[in-house]
Design a protein that fits this description.
68 residues; alpha+beta; two-stranded antiparallel ribbon; two-stranded antiparallel sheet; 1 helix
């Protein structure tokens, strides 16, 4: 996995499971593990894509949305 902030990779790591991702009912910005965590902040844009994007693709999306 890669986590991005403002089009830049800020953290990488291994995926938890090789199982295919299936999204049913979902909550954005929430994680309900042993200790629930809730998003503290704002989310500007959310996209769900059908494949892993490359770092340059993520950067290009970010750059396209940055005001000039």
């Amino acid at each position: 996995m890669r986590h991005f902030v403002d089009g830049q990779v800020v953290k990488t790591g291994d995926a938890f499971s090789p199982a295919p991702l299936v999204i049913g009912r979902a909550e954005v910005g929430n994680w309900r593990g042993e200790t629930p965590r809730f998003l503290q902040g704002r989310m500007d844009e959310l996209a769900i894509v059908s494949r892993a994007m490359t770092t340059p693709e993520v950067k290009a999306l970010y750059d396209a949305g940055v005001p000039q």
